[in-house]
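User:
Care to share a sequence and structure tokens?

Assistant:
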Amino acid sequence: MDCPIYLDDSSIGTLRWTREGGEVRIYASCRYEEGFIYRLYVGDSLDAEKLSLGVMMPENGRFVLLKNIPEHKCAFMLSSSDVVAVIDRRRPGEERSTPPLPFAFSKLEKLPVASEDGDYVRSAFSRAGGYHALHMGIRYYVAPWEPGKELIPSSFFCLLTYFRFEQKGYIVLCVDKDNTLFPIGQRN
């Protein structure tokens, strides 16, 4: 079986796997980019927790990863048709917290000034100085927020995920194509 490997919103390579006894044999290959470390993660959807497969190594002008993993650690790869592979791309020694988004933080677009267009989520995140991005059928809303400050989209308190990125706090909420709201990492 196989699936594309994504870096931000672009497919840059392929992850292949086969069952061999009680293990899953993994082979991944993607373009090589000098000066960066590519760590490969795999999950059964863009919002699920990801399993780290490890750091890809340069070989013949590409990044590659070849390894065997016990079947029980990646059984979802054998039973799901919605397997997603993503790259965490960093420079050597780069320390930063990675936001729980399936795309680069820079892909977020600033929401226009709040309008009462009937979209309460969009309006609330706009009033909070928020951002949004559409990625693979899911709309991600993100707004700056720190504990102790007013939480403008407070109606969604139970569904918000808080994270820190580059020493700033943010909240995030997901909305699917059916307008179902859910926290990042949990698809309804």
